[in-house]
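Calcineurin-like phosphoesterase domain ApaH type
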Amino acid sequence: MESIGDDDELSSKTVSLRRRISFTILLLLLLLISLSTKVSGSIDESGRRVIEARTGQDLIWVVQLSDLHFSVHHPERAIDFKNIVGPALSLINPSLVLITGDLTDGKSKDMLTMKLNEDEWLEYESVMQDVVKRSGLNKSIFYDLRGNHDNFGVPAVGSSVDFFSKYSINAQMGRKGNVNTITVETSERKHLFVGIDTTMHIGLRGPTNLFGHPTDELLSSLDSHLSQWDNQSAKPVAKISFGHFPLSFTALSHSQKSLKDVFLKHSISAYVCGHLHSKFGKNLKRHHHSGGISLSDNDLFQLNMRQSGAESTSNCSFGALPAAEFWEWEMGDWRKNRAMRIMAIDRGHVSYVDLDFKSKSQRTIILPTFPLDSRFMSTSFARHKYECQHMISSSYDAIRAIVFSHSLIVEVVARVYDSSPGFDNLVMEAPMRKLGGDSSSSGATFFSVPWNYRAFEDPLPDRFWLQIEVTDIKGRLTLSEMRPFSINGLSSKVSWTWNEFRVMGCQWAALYYPILWAAMYSLFLVFLIPKCIIIVFKKQYTLKKFIAKKGPITLVVWILQDLCRMPVVWFGYMAYLLYLIFFPWFSGEVFTDSGNRTYMTIMGWVVTSSGADRKHVYIGQPDVMVLVIPHVVFVVIPSVLVVCCLVAEREIYKDHIRTVSGKKEDDHDRGRKKRSQRRSLLFSNRRLFRKSLLVASLALYWKHFKNCWALARAYEMNEVHFPGYSLVVPLLLLYVICKTHKVP
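Tokens:
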């Protein structure tokens, strides 16, 4: 009987345990469903995807990553991404994760052959699955874009080598278009994010795959997506666009329209991108302002980070609107710098912080959301609202910041410094209090402190500086970077370095033909003008005439006329210049494992589309400038200069020999003897000047050889495929060297 009682008791305990386990599983399922519902959002009646941000504030934040370059030759990039990004996203808990291109590297070990590698894409898919799992985020909030490296050698979207359409998150989530949108909504505002893929519709191998190529259809679709909430929402809408290519590396459409024109039309808050990495500088940012000039009106340069005229006085008359504007923010790369960006929109104010996981771990992250950095974030619209008293006072009445930390935060202090006397004076120090409920599940906490913002009005945009100090429960201090601010909405001027200017301030697609034709016309003039002087004006310029009548014009014309007296060289260069303009430079394989060759001219590559008979003429314009301009400017022009110097050296040496040997009538002329003594060092039998020219020729040969070797590796070519490109300049230079060696 006792055993039967014991069995009954054991059975009842087992049933009770099973019920508890079942109840626990049910709770976990409900929790997972609730979390999924929190991030997955909904589709409205118009097919627009909307995510509801439940931060309890008019505040959202997103994460941007760019230029991952996962490579079979550099496995550490993917390993670090898996180990760092998953836990970081779990801490940050963003509303969206934007990965703006160059997901894989697509380069050989020597970095010369550029075509897609499926192993890298398999690694990308595996790593992203692990990151999504470790972050605890819904996969649907991840948006990855195609970069130029993800398009190397892809003949058509959906082809067998288009691995982005197979392994990317966008492809797996069914986002097949080149424009994708998502709206994150708070109780006070809508935040519209529009991603754009402007890579070539026919992807060439590198290096002639460098620019973004928006089509007219893409620009029309972008215009439509950016206006989807116009006149349909009672809430204000903040608009952000994200892509891979900076506008300085984006071509115009067939109808000469640009992304900039569309962005200005909708006055988006910011366009965030990648592509340039961090090697060119830290200030790869650019403020675009409507000043009556668009990219389609030959806007070739912007000398400073802000356009001149962007700080004009606001017009506060009834119905007057501020000028259209937007910020362009390029971010660093994961490839070498392990960079990540957190971007926040707080009551319409857009701010960001860039993180560097290479140099230090990020235990505590501070993102001040107001006031904004007057160097990189302030806008004319904010100034207009402030000067015209249209601003929402509640968005100005407190200093605000988001703090992300694994540890409990015990104190947050805001400090404001006055830099006007020439050194930092602390003028405000106040503890910040936490807003909202318990956010320990995400590690993100919102802090705020009221202040009298009108006390900080000043005509100088960088007089006052903000810094926030955070102390965690372990006593560790973390300081935010000091940043200037201007309550008035004024902007601090930041000058680009030379490297920053040449990649952000130059519209390279528009500069290609001006640079090319300026160089070609100059070369033609070099050969034609002295020939015309001889034939038409019957004037002969010689060394003797230059000695008698010194001057830069006489010197140049004498040297060029001597060059014209070498028919092989003159006709050789003239024929070569015509060849470069009108004929193919070389033929090569521009697609991955296609086996088909095509040819390149200064107008682009001529390729045949997949599955059709028609030819796509001039694909890759202006991308071919990375081959055309360096060859013309750094090979052809220097070779002409070296040839001219060799010819001049020969004539001067001949004159020197005749002078010292007494073969001229004026042998005893004292002036000639003095000139002979002055020239003896450079033009004696040792001919040091000629030897220096031979060294320059060797350097030129080496430069040209490296270019030819890189092209042969990139497009699987040999000498047969580019004889004119590879042989003409070296042969002409060699001919002149031999011709000028012996002096009669």
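Confidence is low (pLDDT under 50) at residues 1-10, 25-40, 292-298.
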